[in-house]
UniProtKB/TrEMBL annotation:
This is DUF6311 domain-containing protein. Keywords: Membrane, Transmembrane, Transmembrane helix. It comes from the Bacteria. Residues 77-377 form the DUF6311 domain. It comes from Micromonospora rhizosphaerae. The chain crosses the membrane at residues 37-56, 130-149, 158-177, 227-243, 255-276, 329-346, 402-422.
Amino acid sequence: MAVPVVDPSLNPASVAVEPVVADPPRRPRRRPVRADVLAIGAYALLGVFVCLNYWGDVQHRVSSHLPTDHSWFEWLFAHGAYSVRHLENPLFTARQNAPDGVNMMANTSLLGVTLPLAPLTLLLGPQVMYALYLGGALGATAGTSYWMLSRHLVRSRGAAFVGGAFLGFAPGIVHHANGQPNFVSNFLLPLIVVRVLRLGEPGRWRRNGIALGLLVAYQIFINEEMLLLTALACLVIVGAYAVQRPRAAWARAGTFLAALGVGGGLALLLAAYPLWFQFNGPQSYRGLQGGVFHSWGEDLAAFVTFPRDTVAGSEAVEQTIGLTEQNSWFGWPLALVALVALALLVRRSRAARIVAVLVVGFTVAAIGPKVRFNGVETAIDGPWAYVPDDLPLVEMMMPTRLALVVAGAVGVLLALAWDALAGGRPPVPAPRSAPERADDAVTPPTPRRWLRPVGYAAVTLALLPLFPRPLPAQHVDPPPHFITAGGWRPYVPAGRTLVPVPIPSNVHGLPTLRWSALTGQAFPIPGGYFIGPGPEEQGMFGAPNRPTSTLIYSTMDAGTLPPITAEHRRQAVADLRFWRASVVVLGANPDETVLRDLMTALLGPPRRVDDVWLWDVRGLV
């Protein structure tokens, strides 16, 4: 997560780590521009490299680690294109979980991306769009982080490049790139943080507030959870600054609050209806059953462990620490370098002190209800043991994801450390009052000659083991020709559904979910992969199982046909009526034989049409 930390003690138009007493010599314009172009180009190439395994056969590959998530986001790109093409409300869809539908605002719908990119999705298809966007989002996050660092925090372009690369391709971010592009779409977050820290700028409170409101409203349609994490980080940053500079903070409080009110009011105005729809619209829910996410805390050993998808990582370590998200996983060299950098910088740099507060505070907060070490849950309570499961907004959070703020703080720390080694000075601040200049007039000394190469080498060697490998991908069979060629069309009139076997769910039915995505959601399907209301309106994963879908899943798990009774047949007809089915379709599947026998026992003999088994149930329902 890109959570930049800038020093708001200076004029917000040119924020810096420490003030500069005299103006540094001007550099030619061409050199920074060239450095900027090279940095952005390097980030783009790294984004392509991370997605390299998909491009080998982009039509038939999905994430090896999260194949169902990958397919869900392909479906989301198709949803955006379908909504634009048919001018339908993108906040809700009836193309999945028929006939009830899915509340898209209550799911990770990525509407801020899928709707603007709908023309490209219609042109290229959701598989290509997924891979293209994933690499682009990684590079774009690194790019906006680089812009924030180079314009508002450090003078050295090398320092900004190192920090931006880490913020865009941090281990936790690359981990989420395995099927969860919403968590790598952090390109607005550096812009949001900079805008928050400019809210106290005299004379510009309206403009700054409006800019912040627009950014926040847009981020709501990309990833609300990352927005919440960023808001928490900003709260800590502003609080830490106020503690260090109480007089300056008090002097700017009125302007800051006025601009914050404008930004918050505008964001609420723009997002009011979608947010109402999320919590009160059809298929909305209240929290998750059992507060399932609250137990997902970060293992303390994870902070010094090499992540799986890096040159130094290995899948074997997951068997020790566990299969939770790898949101920290910095490796011991980077953890050591970060601690040394903090110790050296914290006395001289206000930004480093704020980084220290973020690192300590969010490391502790990332621990779940119980402290875990090296895969073993101890008897020591963690901070989330005291957080109610039903606390609004927090009820949907995973403690481990708070470690993404730590990753953002470490990225800023790397930039600060590299800049200090380079002897870089921040951009020249606008004139300030005499008391403020006197309070800030400490300039970091030029590092000793021997310290510069040693420091560069230490940072480089700490980061090299974290260089990402191409994300692992696996082959997935294409949908049947009967589906892609439109052979189903005579069987599925308007208002009726096509029932694929197995019915898509959060566990089963990955291939059949892609039938919908890769045909542009041409037909509605029952079931699906989403979060919707369950008992007592609490959220649950997937649709509530019908008796027939439960029978299908249990048969697949057992691999043998159970005894089929008249009650099973009666219930199958009732479920097909509920789904408004017109045809049941079974394509190539590892469990094809037993599934065909099951559906034959329930519905009678099928017909072989093209490359599928087909049960025409229009006469039954």
